[in-house]
Amino acid sequence: MIFEFLSSTFGTILEMFKSGGIITYIITLIGIYGFITSFEKIHYLRKISKVTLPQITGSVNSAMEKGGSLEALRAIAKYQNPISKIISEALKIGYRNKTEVEDAMERVFIVEMGNMTKGLDTLRTIIEIAPLLGLIGTVIGLWYTFKALGVNANATAMAEGIYIALITTIAGLSVAIVLLPFYTYITGRIDKEMDKIEIAKKMTNWGSAEMKLRVKNVDNAMKALNEAEGVVNVKQIIDNEANLWVSFKPSMLEKSINNIIMEKCNFEVQIIESKLKQ
Q1: In this predicted model, what pLDDT tens digit does every residue of 260-272 receive, in sequence order?
Q2: Contact, 261 vs 228, CB < 8 A?
Q3: Residue 146 pLDDT
Q4: What distance in Å separates the CA atoms of residue 129 and residue 25, rounded to the nearest whole number?
Q5: CB 172 within 8 A of CB 130
Q6: C-alpha to C-alpha distance for 148 and 170, rounded to whole angstroms
C-alpha cells in the first residue's frame, strides 16, 4: 500500500517535471545546488562551534598558569576555529606590539568571516531567483494558452499551457520555500559565531603582562626598557634561564619587547616566559 502510494507520487512528480520543460530543469538544478551549499555550510558551522568559548578560555587560563602564553598557544592550537585563531593572535602581545597584534587579529577575522559567509550570497540569489524563473514559466504557459485561443481554439493546447504555468510556479516557489529556512538558520548561526568572536576580543584585552628574558647586557637592556612606552617595571633576577624580568601594559606597548632592546642595545633578546593577565 505504502509502496504503491510512493510509486504513484514519484510518477506524478516525474510527469510534472517532464511537462514543465526547460524552466523546470533550470529550477531543479539551481535548487539542488542550493541544497548542497546549505548542507555544506551547516556542516562547517557546526564543526567550528563544537568547542565553546568557555572551553577555549579555560584552556588558555589553565595553560597560562602552567607555562605562560606559549603554552596557551600550544593548548588551543588543536581547536582550529575562528575563536581560537583570534585568541592565538592576542596571545602574541609582547612578542609583537599592540598594532601588529590588532592587525593580525583583524586579518584572521576577515579570513574567518569570509569562510563563514562563503556561498551565502549564492544561496540568497537562488531563493530570490527561483520564484522569478517560475514566473517566467508561468508567462510562457499563458502564452501557449492565449496562442491556443486563436482562430482555431484548441482545448488540449490551452490545458497544456495552463499546466506548464502551474508546474513552473510550483517548482519555483517550492525551491524558495524549502531553502529559506536553511538560509535563516545559517545566518543565525553566523550571527552567534560573530557574537562569540566579539566576546573573545574583549576577553583578550589583556590588562597586564610579565616576561622573563635572557639578555647579554642587563644594565643596557634595563635602561632601554625603562624608557619605553608601556613598560611598568623592570628588574634583574637570578634564574637558571633568565636574568631579567619585565612587566608592561599590553594596550600601551608601541613596540615589541625584542624591538625595544634591539633598537637601543643592538643585541637579540631571548624570551623565556610570557604571562598575560586580565
Answers
A1: 888 888 878 888 8
A2: no
A3: 66
A4: 14
A5: yes
A6: 23
**Alpha carbon of residue 216 to chain centroid:** 44
Specify the pTM. Answer: 0.79
pLDDT digits (tens, 9 = 90+) for 123-155: 999 999 998 888 887 777 776 666 666 555 555
Cell of 116: 563563514
Name residue 77's amino acid: A
Asked if residues 48 and 82 have their Cβ atoms less than 8 Å apart, the reply is yes
The C-alpha angle with vertex 149 and arms to 147 and 152, in degrees rounded to 5, equals 100
SS3 for 277?
A: strand
Rg (CA), the chain: 31
Cβ burial of 7 (10 Å; 0-12, 13-18, 19+) is exposed
Among 42-51, 149-158, 246-255, the range scoring the smallest mean pLDDT is 149-158
pLDDT at 207 over 80: yes
Domains of the chain: 1-205 (no CATH), 208-277 (3.30.70.100)
Round to whole Å and give the CA distance between 274 and 165. 70
Distance between CA atoms of 164 and 170, rounded to whole angstroms?
A: 10
Please name which of 235, 205, 203, 126 lies closest in space to residue 171, comparing C-alpha atoms: 126
